Amino acid sequence: MRLQLGGICWCCLMLFQAVIGLAQEGDAKAAPKLPGNSAVWINSPPISTEMLAGKAAVLYFFEETCPRCVEAWPRVLMQAAKFEGEPVLFIAVNSGSPRPQLEAYLRKYNVKWPVICDSDRSFENQFDFTVSLENTKQLRLLMPDGKFKSGDSENIEGSAVDALRDAKWKIEPKDIPPVLQPAWLAIEFGNYPGAAQMLKKNLNGKGEIKEAATRLNQFVLDDLTGQIDAAKKSLDDGKKWAAFKRYSAIPLKFKGFAVPAEVNSTLKELAADEAIKVEQAAMRQFDAAVQAASRSPSARKGAIKQLEKLIKDHPDTEAATEAQKLIEQAGM
Q1: Do 99 and 70 belong together in one domain?
Q2: Which of 109, 144, 227, 289 is most buried by a 10 A CB count?
Q3: Are residues 156 and 295 in the same domain?
Q4: CATH code of the domain covering residue 50
Q5: Confidence band (pLDDT; 50, 70, 90) for 328?
Q6: Is the domain of 251 the same as that of 282?
Q7: What is the average pLDDT across 223-233?
């Protein structure tokens, strides 16, 4: 399967959501974050700022009821296609329409980029503009250092060049044999399960193929060690919920690779903790509300009530904190 997403040709690429919900850290106004909930993404699983570390992204905010925006799509898509193979991703963000309506729009105009369905404008509200029929499109660049800056919506090509200035791959692709290119690309974006089988097959190869497979495999194993160390530190610091999320992510992120038995045993112990059970239950409520909000304006009102109930029932949970942020960002 070959899927073209903006400037990057993603071969068999399936990103995944490593942690549950929309949990973000820090002040959303000061440092916007890509949403982490799968309910708001179309054409792609959730893509995090962390996954794009060292690379660039061009975020195209558009007014879906604007005829001029419709006319602009062929030109916009053509400009983005020039960056295939470069470490830059193009992401579209709509301005308020519910998910079913937006999905039909994307099919009609052949938009296959990753798309953030911003039905309640909570993502847009993190920035310094409002997309409308008077302000039909905006461009923001996610730079390799994880910070956003303004781009020129009338010059997407030039803006992408600007975003790419300091962007680079984690592993230089020119040293990877063609047979391992899909595995390399999957690893670049943290989709380790998508690379596991191909690496196993080629670790027993010969010459440059075996050498490249070994290098890619070691990159994954080094990351695995780092993830386990970070989870242990959270646990040692008494941050059980943070530790639980980190340990939960490891078996998913490294599926197909040998994960130490200690990960599953520690995860089992944490899952039995009553405080963790409360956090999980609250996060499930949060996810359900977010998914409901993306369906229609009327469903959005019900979702707000769900979020308010969550805050009341589980005030000390991370989900409650995120629910309050979402309500504030949406101006509700």
Answers
A1: yes
A2: 289
A3: no
A4: 3.40.30.10
A5: confident
A6: no
A7: 97
Assess contact for 2 and 268: CB atoms under 8 A: no
Do residues 158 and 221 both lie within one domain?
A: no
Residue with token string 């991703």: 89
Query: Between the CA atoms of 34, 38, 39 and 42, what dihedral angle is there, to the nearest 10 degrees?
Result: 80
Residue 284 lies in domain = 275-329
What is the length of the chain? 332
**Residue 331 banded pLDDT, cuts 50, 70, 90:** low
Q: Which residue has the higher pLDDT, 297 or 56?
A: 56
Last residue of a domain, one of 133, 166, 199: 166
Residue 24 binned pLDDT confidence (cut-offs 50, 70, 90): very low
H helical segments located in the chain: 67-81, 99-108, 156-163, 181-188, 193-203, 207-236, 240-253, 261-271, 274-293, 297-313, 318-329
Residue 110: is it exposed, middle or buried by C-beta count within 10 angstroms (0-12/13-18/19+)?
exposed
pLDDT of residue 49: 86
CA distance 36 to 255: 20
C-alpha distance across the termini of the chain, in Å: 42
| Domain final residue, candidates 245, 272, 299 | 272
Distance CA 224, CA 119 (A): 36
Please tell me whether residues 292 and 265 are part of one structural domain.
no
Reported pTM: 0.69
Average confidence score pLDDT of the chain: 87
pLDDT at 7: 46
